[in-house]
Inverse folding.
């Protein structure tokens, strides 16, 4: 029997606004997950469960009284979390605590602190919202007779496997995917033992856990071994043995929508922006970066590397143009504001020091314009992607596909994309400003033959691994496990 | 044949000042290593190699022209590093970079940065000074016919094993000891691959590497496996197989000089300070901390936990006294100055909020007075030791031995001492302010019987493991290896 595939994520694929006649207008999200979903829905029966966010979402959810409803060909169930619980879950635990732990972005002597409020947000927020998700799913599955595959997405839903197992037992394959990096055991020391144990042992109620890279998958196994007395790896790199359970830790590197990208690159708006950029850059070589304004993206050290380049290699002065397209992100958070201030100030100092009447060495563009980014990516000579850590980094993949100048990719060895693209990029340690400057120089002076070879290799790799493939691979593994379970029926699934 | 034991450390056991008649006055250091040395010198022939520091040291070293000289029963060799090389070795690489990596104390979005100066300090500083040490040792050993055991101390000398092997081959047992924490692989990502590989593969030229705890020893094995292609652990937790070499990773927890402590506790000065403190604390319960002013000691979160205690348990107001004895450290470094400012400001705010005409809730004493610390340690009801990470933390051990009130130890699970003392202490996650406040409350309200039982258990454990034992254990392991080498003669020592 064909299985039902349940995707669970904090944010859903659509948002709703009530319109005059009592119905709702639907806005489709733009993320890669939504694109991939379309492809998945062609092959499988899909139910997507997410939290209502906007007022309109809540009204839509209320109108359907907790039952799934088909929207643009997808069955959707929106849960309605209590506002205070959601705030603790999202604004205290998931985003500031889990996200920062997994990106190792602390100023450790001062933050984070686990306070009374953190404990309250854990118990009445994160646990409560995860339990609410599990209960909504369990209620929907009550009348379901097909085999079920449940795919919880990311760091908001780490407690879901535990609650699901209690409610629905072993009848479903549970297979979370973690979109952000999974660091080694040390990073998890920040959590009190009780919270850490709850998260790890919940994830081990899954059948398999998906990560962006093999390093993340390996780190997950190590973290479980390090902190859970009953977790073992028995010499493997990708399996956790936990009591009676056997959990696989697997890399499914996410990718981009290459088809959509090809279409967007040819739109008139993109062409227009490209010709404007072309005039601005003129015959200079373009060193580009495109990032959310986010400390883990390491934008500051990128500027310092550019300064070092101009210091060490004065021959590039006036012959290169650095451009940073920066998309505002979480600007209500102090750390993010401070980070943007430091970026602007460093850029100003570089321009004050090196500019001439005819040359502004670095141009920072703050704003969100995807067509502009696409236009710039077509033109770069060097693309600088130097995050301190990054789950995947899709800019590296997008650049590889749309660039038209055999541009060189300077890539941090701690971007998830490094595992697929590192061989054909110039690798840098993101902390090494001097090394990064040298890599940019190497990119600027690389012989055309080598540039072409590398650029073509990068493009081939990315085009082969479209975003659709990413979801298919995960569901295929779950289906295979379901089938082999069927064959064994009453024999236990652990060796 | 009895072996020669060579101790190598950045700082030596003595410092010298020239006196009028052309000879030198000698000042003996006070650290635990110097004490342990005395005991070691009773059982073995010891040569101590260190760097000249002061002007007087340089003059003494010059007077002896690179030959060892016996000082107070110890043969001493002082090397004379070039001033600029030493500066790069000590002030660029060892203290700011290695120390911070191993304590994971970064504000990662901004520091550290590996710059041109870092690379220069690595090559012309750290490598040069390590090579100089190795050459001085090799020259001294030229005429040596006995078996040799070389014990390099701490993070200043990571490159020594490599240079030593090149100069003297396999004739010596090389056995470094790392006094500070060894974190897991993630922390080492900060170093460029070339530097990281050099350090790890140098340490693997040793026969065994000593650490404070089994966790550090395990982390070392993991770090080597993670970053060196040819390093394997073959399922063990404590062995690295590296090419033809087999390297053991072993915990030798350092301890304190319990005999000296007993003597100092009975000195008149200590008694005087104790009675003064007694008057100050009066019938209140004393919550004590004694630390260098150092972000890794987590003094700020300790104060915040105290504030939480007074908030959550108003019954303690006016009945407890927090006292923090803080020893100035690296006060020329901005981070350390800022940290002290934040501590003073937090203490001021707590006193402003909770003080009464007869009660100052927290008293900060900045200064270095060991007798005062000893006096206070005799009197505490609760000793707060909550570092974010700490190689060992000797305050926890000293307190356990000298306290006279069956005081309760509140101990961070990330202090090295936790491995020996954790069972009888109240364990806290150092990031968890709320949990730390609860542990202090538990300590303040613990029944006398349980307090006595725990205090006695702690005292017994520390008294059993005196500092002398620590050096003996290491040398015993090396001697045993030498003996089994002798027995095998020409068979290779790897399986």
């Amino acid at each position: 029997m064909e299985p039902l595939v349940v995707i669970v994520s904090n944010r859903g694929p659509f948002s709703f606004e009530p319109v005059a006649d009592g119905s709702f207008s639907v806005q489709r999200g733009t993320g890669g997950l939504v694109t991939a979903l379309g492809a998945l829905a062609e092959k499988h029966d899909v139910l997507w469960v997410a939290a209502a966010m906007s007022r309109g979402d809540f009204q839509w959810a209320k109108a359907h009284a907790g039952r799934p409803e088909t929207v643009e060909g997808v069955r959707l169930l929106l849960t309605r979390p209590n506002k205070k619980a959601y705030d603790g879950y999202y604004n205290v635990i998931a985003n500031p605590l889990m996200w920062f732990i997994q990106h190792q972005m602390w100023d450790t002597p001062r933050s984070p602190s686990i306070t009374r409020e953190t404990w309250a947000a854990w118990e009445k927020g994160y646990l409560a919202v995860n339990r609410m998700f599990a209960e909504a799913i369990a209620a929907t599955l009550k009348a379901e007779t097909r085999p079920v595959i449940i795919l919880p997405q990311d760091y908001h839903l780490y407690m879901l496997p535990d609650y699901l197992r209690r409610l629905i037992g072993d009848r479903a394959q549970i297979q979370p995917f973690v979109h952000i990096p999974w660091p080694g055991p040390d990073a998890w020391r920040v959590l009190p033992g009780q919270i850490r144990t709850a998260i790890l042992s919940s994830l081990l109620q899954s059948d398999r856990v998906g990560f962006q890279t093999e390093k993340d998958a390996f780190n997950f196994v190590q973290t479980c071994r390090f902190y859970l007395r009953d977790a073992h790896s028995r010499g493997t790199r990708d399996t956790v043995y936990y009591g009676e359970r056997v959990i696989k830790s697997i890399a499914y590197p996410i990718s981009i929508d290459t088809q959509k990208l090809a279409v967007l690159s040819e739109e008139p708006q993109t062409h227009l922006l490209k010709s404007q950029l072309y005039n601005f850059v003129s015959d200079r070589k373009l060193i580009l970066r495109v990032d959310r304004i986010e400390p883990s993206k390491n934008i500051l050290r990128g500027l310092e590397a550019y300064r070092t380049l101009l210091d060490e290699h004065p021959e590039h002065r006036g012959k290169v143009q650095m451009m940073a397209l920066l998309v505002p992100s979480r600007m209500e958070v102090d750390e993010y504001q401070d980070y943007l201030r430091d970026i602007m100030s460093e850029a100003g100092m570089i321009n004050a020091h090196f500019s001439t009447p005819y040359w502004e060495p670095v141009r920072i563009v703050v704003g969100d314009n995807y067509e502009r980014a696409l236009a710039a990516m077509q033109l770069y000579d060097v693309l600088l992607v130097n995050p301190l850590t990054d789950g995947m980094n899709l800019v590296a993949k997008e650049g590889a596909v749309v660039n038209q100048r055999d541009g060189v990719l300077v890539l941090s060895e701690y971007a998830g994309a490094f595992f697929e693209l590192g061989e054909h990029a110039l690798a840098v340690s993101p902390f090494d400003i001097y090394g990064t400057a040298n890599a940019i120089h190497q990119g600027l002076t690389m012989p055309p033959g080598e540039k072409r070879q590398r650029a073509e290799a990068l493009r081939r790799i990315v085009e082969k691994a479209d975003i659709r493939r990413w979801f298919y691979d995960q569901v295929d593994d779950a289906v295979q496990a379901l089938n082999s379970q069927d064959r064994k029926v009453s024999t236990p699934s652990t060796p």
Summary: Chain B touches chain A through 46 residues (CB under 8 Å). Chain B is about 45% helix and 20% strand. The first strand of chain B starts at residue 4 and ends at 8.
